[in-house]
Amino acid sequence: MQISTASFYNRSAAQMSRLNADLNRYQTEMTTKKLNVASQDSTAWMMLGGIKKDDADSTAFRSNITLSRGLLAQADTALGNVDDRLVRVRELATRAGSETLNDKDRVSIATELGQLREGLLALANTRDVRGHAIFGGVGDVAFAKDADGAIKYTGIDATGATVVDIDATARIRIGDASEIQVGIDGSRVFGGATGTTDIFKLIDDLKAAMEMPLTDPVTTGGATGTGGTTGGTTGGIGTGTTDPAVPFDADAARSKYALAINSALGKLNTAEAQITSARAANGARAARLEIESSQLESVGIDREEARSSLEDVDIATMTVQFQKTLTILNATQATISKLANLSLFNYLK
Questions:
Q1: C-beta separation of 238 from 218 below 8 A
Q2: Prediction pTM value
Q3: What span, in angstroms and rounded, lies between the C-alpha atoms of 72 and 174?
Q4: Please, what is the Cα angle at 114 between 113 and 118, to 5 degrees?
Q5: pLDDT by residue (tens digit) across 284-304?
Q6: Can you tell me whether residue 34 is helix, strand or coil?
Q7: DSSP code of residue 122
Q8: Are 181 and 170 in contact, with CB atoms under 8 Å apart?
Q9: E-assigned strands of 61-201?
Q10: How far are the Cα atoms of 110, 137, 253 from residue 205, in angstroms, in the given order?
Q11: 244, pLDDT greater than 80
Q12: Own/partner pairs for 165-170, CB < 8 Å, 24+ apart?
């Protein structure tokens, strides 16, 4: 079979061009990655697209988990501070039940209870790093004083109906189908929800008990005689009670006082249980974050292995392939050079 000179050179050029292209591709892959355009492997290219999307989602979820950890830590700190103040309220209530207290002592306790009440209100309206109320609500505050000075949860209207859905307003997405609650329903911590103890009312009632009179409030009466002497009889000034018709019952007053103290101590048990329950639930959510974070890390490792198998270059294998192709190219060039010299003119020399 005869092969024309043009065909010989064309085939030789095409072969060397293909080998050169292979060498360039190998060199590019060794310095970058083995899948640079979709035309190389459309299926692998689509898989890589999905992996990159999942990586972006995972990065966002990890950021949300970090934020959620901080928010839950803030909430736990606030609950711990509330717990500390309730311990002090209990100490004052227990002290108030002592028979040795005088009126001045009770006034001092009432004053401190008022300060604790204001401190608890400030804690109830604590904001997180995002500026949101930790204990719920969508406004600037979670608790506010009404016209009478009573402290009420702003997420409950006058009829007692809940108008703020904590579950809906205080959640952060931490996975494809996972969310976590980072806010706390203040009505279940400080009171307002059905079946809970109102901590602020408890303190108000205890403070009111401190202000109850336990002794006969003696007042100065009017004159019962005249000044000077009349027939050797000296006139004087007399004293009396506020209302002789309704004598002061000291025993009844002390009984009422003791009942108020015991009631406050009983309600404190429930209030402290509310704080404990809220802290336990908050801790459980923090533990769940650790599990979610660990799962993200594990899935991320698997995804990285899949991406590496599709995209990364095995340098050792690629180096061998590069050297092999380079050897073939050099051999091809030498062979073609020899064959190109076998012409009739060279034979006649």
A1: no
A2: 0.70
A3: 14
A4: 115
A5: 999 999 999 999 999 988 888
A6: coil
A7: H
A8: yes
A9: 143-145, 151-153, 171-175, 178-181
A10: 10, 26, 15
A11: no
A12: 166/136, 169/136, 169/138, 170/132, 170/136
